[in-house]
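Changelog-linked ticket: pyridoxal-5'-phosphate example.
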Amino acid sequence: MIKGQFPLERFKSVRTPFYYYDLELLDRTLDALQAALAPTPEYRVHYAVKANFNPVILSRIAARGLGADCVSGGEVKAALQAGFKASDIVFAGVGKSDEEMILGLEAGIARFNVESEAELRVLNDLALERGKRAPVSFRVNPDIGAHTHAGITTGLAENKFGINYEQLIPVIRTALELPGIEYKGLHFHIGSQILDMSDFVALCNRVNSLTEELRSQGLPVGDLNMGGGLGINYRHPNHLPIADFEGWLGTFRRFLHTEPGQLVHFEPGRSIVAPCGSLISRVLYVKEGTVKRFAIIDGSMTELVRPAMYHAYHRVENISSDGPEILYDVVGPVCESSDVFAREEALSECRRGDFIAIRSAGAYGEAMASQYNCHRLPEALY
Ligand SMILES: *Cc1c(COP(=O)(O)O)cnc(C)c1O
C-alpha cells in the first residue's frame, strides 16, 4: 500500500496524539483553488472557519487574500486575529446572540447572513442604536437533496436553517423598509462532503428560478453566496490529495445564471483543510479478541470525533512499518463503544509504539476536539 510521507524523526519528540499539518499540501490546495477561481473575477471565496480555526492554518489562508465565513462571534474574532479583513468576513448562523451581532457591527464585517425575520428585526435595532446599517443577505433553504422538485414545502417549514421559499419575498420587502438594514443578496448552503456535482446543478436551477421570480416582481437580487460543501476523497488521500475545485466551480460557471458584474461567493471549508491534516497516534496494545484483532491506539474520539459521530471513514496507516498487512479494528481508549476509527482495515503489522496516521483529518478534527474523559486537547505540529 502506498503511504503518505511523514517526518517520523520529528514525531519522536512529540507527545501523541497530535495533529500534523502538511503546510506544503495546504499551499498546493490553495494554489489549485485560486487557479480554478482565476478565470472568473466575480467568483470570491470565504473560507469556512468552523472546519479548522487553528491560528497557523487560519493565518496561512488569510495571507492568500481569501475571505472568512464565520458561524459565531468567537470565529469572527479568530478570523480578525488571523488577519482576515473585516470587509472580507461574512457571518452566518441560525441563532446569533445580541453580543455576537454587536461584535460584527462594530468590527464592520461584510455581511450578516440572516435566517429569520425575528433576527432581522433585532439586527435592525442593534444597528440603529449604533447609527449603522447592517449589510444583510438572506439564507434561503432551497430544499435540495431531500426532494427533487421546486415547491415541495413539507421539509422546509420544519428545517432549522434558512428562510423558506414562501417567506422570502415578504422578508426582502421588510428588509428594504428597515432603516438599519442594507439588503445585499441571497445565501445558500446545501450540505457537506458533496461529490455528486448534480446536487450543485440542482442548486443552480433552484437559484435561477428564484432570482428570475424576484426580478419579475421588481425586487433586487444582489449578490449570491452558494455556500460550501465540496467533498474530498477520504479513501485515496495519497493519489487524490486535492479536491476538484475546477469541476465544482465549473459546474456553477455552466449552470448558474448571473448578470454581468454580479458577485458570486463560495464558502468551502472541508475541501481546503481536510487533506493537509493527519491525527498521529501511537499503538498502545495489540489485542486478539475472539473474532477480531484490535490495534488500541492512544488517539481517540476526543481528538477526532467524526468516525464516532458520523460513521465517517478515514484512512488509517501504520507509518512506522512496511511489514505485511493484517486486518485490524483500530480503536481508541475512550469508554464508548463508538470510539472506533476503522474496522477490518489492512495495516502493516502493528507493534507497540508504532506511529499510526489517521488521514484527511484537517477538517472538523482539531476544531471539534473535546476534553471528555479528562483528555488534554491535542497539540499541533507543522
Ligand atoms: C459548514 C458551512 C460551510 C462549509 O462547509 P464545508 O462542507 O466544510 O465546505 C459553508 N457555509 C456554511 C453556512 C456552513 O455552515
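Closing comment: Example verified and attached. The chain is about 30% helix and 20% strand. The CA atoms of residues 274 and 362 lie 4 Å apart.
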